[in-house]
Each structure stands twice: as C-alpha cells, then as structure tokens.
Amino acid sequence: MSDCIFCKIANGEIPTNTVYEDDRFRVILDAAPANEGHCLVLPKKHGANIFELDGETVSDAFAVAKKIAEAVKKSMNAEGVNILQNNGEAAGQTVGHFHIHVIPRKSGDNVTIKADAIELSDEEKQNICKKISDEIS
Ligand code: 5GP
Ligand code: ZN
C-alpha cells in the first residue's frame, strides 16, 4: 500500500525507533506513548486489520508481541503489560494497518484502559452465545 504510513515504517522507508526486526515484522516505539516503552508490533505485509490480514500473520504477530511483552516488562521494570489491538474506527483504530500495542504498566501509573460493564439478562446472554457460536465453523 503506497500511501500507508505503517507500510513505509515497517519496510524501513521512514526511519523510526526500532526495538526488534525480522524478515516479517518490525516493532517500533509508539510516537505518542501511553507509558514508557509503549511498543507497536507491525507486520511488514499490509492488511488493514484482523479481518483483512491472513491468520498465520496475525498469530505470528501475537508471538512477537509475547517476546516484546517479556522484554519491556524486564527493561522498563514493569509490573504488568497490556496487549491491545484495535480493529475499525468504531473500535478506536486510527491507522489502517494491523498493529498490536504492547504497553508496560506499573501500579499507580496514569494509563486508563477501561470499559463499563453493560447489563444483560440470562436470556440475552444465551442468544448472544448462540449467535456467536453459530458463526464459528
Ligand atoms: P490505533 O489507535 O490505530 O490502535 O493506534 C495507532 C497508534 O499509532 C497510536 O498509538 C499512535 O500514537 C501511533 N502512531 C501513529 N502514527 C505514528 C507514526 O508515524 N509513528 C509512530 N511511531 N507511531 C505512530
Ligand atoms: Zn500498510
């Protein structure tokens, strides 16, 4: 994708802080980090989101995210790590090239990742459960 900023970064056309690179992935520091050591795992192959990228690249990207989570936990003296991955504008995705956020966390830090629970009846839960399970082949 010639006009995709993360394609250009992942493939080295635009230089940036790279913490890890192999033939299929580049891991960079987020330009507007939520915390010190906030990294983004970028596949070099373009796919807009989890729906458009092939399953093998998605699962291998999560294997890279595990490696990065371990590295940032140790190097940033973090107590925990959030792994976030947004798909679609409605889900907060702002860059249309699949990426995984790896965010080191310490108790009392200023990062807020929060969703208020919605109320559902048992019947509604059963209907939702059936709808989703019917879609899984
Ligand atoms: P999203 O909201 O799509 O899940 O996350 C996009 C992330 O990419 C944001 O956290 C944003 O700060 C980061 N970002 C956007 N443009 C650039 C860039 O040009 N360089 C880097 N290093 N990060 C970027
Ligand atoms: Zn791209």
Features:
137 residues; alpha+beta; five-stranded antiparallel β-sheet; 3 helices; binds guanosine-5'-monophosphate; binds zinc ion
Helix and strand element order: HEEEHEEH
Instruction: Work out the helicity level.
Output: 25-40%
Q: What kind of sheet is the major sheet?
A: 5 strands, antiparallel
Order of strands, main sheet, comes to: 1-2-3-5-4
Q: How many alpha or pi helices?
A: 3
Q: Using the CA coordinates, give the radius of gyration.
A: 17 Å
What characteristic shape results from the CA principal axes?
globular
**Proportion of strand residues:** 15-25%
Write a brief structural summary:
The chain is α+β, with helices and mostly antiparallel strands.
Could you please describe the fold and organization of this structure?
The protein is an alpha+beta fold. Helices cover 30% and strands 18% of the residues. It contains three helices and five strands. A five-stranded antiparallel sheet has the order 1-2-3-5-4. β1 (18-21) and β2 (25-29) form a beta hairpin. The longest helix has 21 residues, at 55-75. The two termini are 31 Å apart. The mean pLDDT is 97. Bound molecules: guanosine-5'-monophosphate and zinc ion. Zinc ion binds at residues 1, 4, 6-7, 46, 97.
